[in-house]
Design a protein that fits this description.
Elements: E1 6-11, E2 23-28, E3 37-42, H1 46-57, E4 62-68, H2 71-81, E5 85-88, H3 97-107, E6 112-117, H4 122-131, E7 135-138, H5 142-161
Parallel strand pairs: 3-4, 3-5, 5-6, 6-7
Antiparallel strand pairs: 1-2
Helix pairs in contact: 2-3
Length: about 160
């Protein structure tokens, strides 16, 4: 079988300055060009993790690389899988989400954490950001707010990579 030839396409993506600038890009035919965000889910409710997985995997930019049912497992899997982002609940058995976030951020400086929780109090929000989260999303708002929070976390990753 002959090697695939590159397919040339005109790219008019939104990241070009206004007015749009036409660029000729070289893309290999048949291969996706989207860099996926690797995500680890950490929540103690199995059914909620299933729903969250389906929501995230409906986006072509997201790949769920693992799940954790408590904070201890979240820390272990984050160290083993090195995701780009961990989506973490606060209230979990063994180690809560705040302590797990501090441990993950201490071990893996590059990994970002998005807190996804039902807790809507100033105390929890403040404690979450003190522990090192990139974004705080309420579960009731996850359909609208979770993907933008992931994008924000990834922008932080890109900014850190540029340093």
């Amino acid at each position: 079988m002959a090697p695939r030839r590159p397919a040339f396409r005109w790219d008019l993506s939104g990241d070009t300055p206004e007015p749009p600038v036409w660029r000729r890009t070289k893309k290999w035919a048949g291969t996706p060009q989207v860099k996926k965000i690797k995500v680890l889910l950490a929540d103690d409710h199995h059914r909620f993790r299933e729903i969250l997985r389906r929501l995230l995997e409906s986006s072509p930019e997201v790949e769920v690389v693992g799940e954790a049912e408590n904070g201890r497992v979240a820390v272990e899997k984050a160290n083993r899988l090195t995701p780009d982002v961990v989506i973490m609940d606060i209230a979990m058995p063994e180690i809560n989400g705040l302590a797990a976030t501090r441990m993950i951020r201490a071990d893996l400086e590059r990994v970002r954490v998005v807190m996804l929780t039902v807790h809507n109090s100033e105390e929890y929000i403040s404690a979450a950001f003190d522990s090192g989260v990139s974004a705080y999303v309420l579960k009731e708002e996850m359909n609208d707010a979770l993907l933008p929070a992931l994008a924000k976390a990834c922008r932080e990753l890109d900014a850190d990579a540029g340093k």
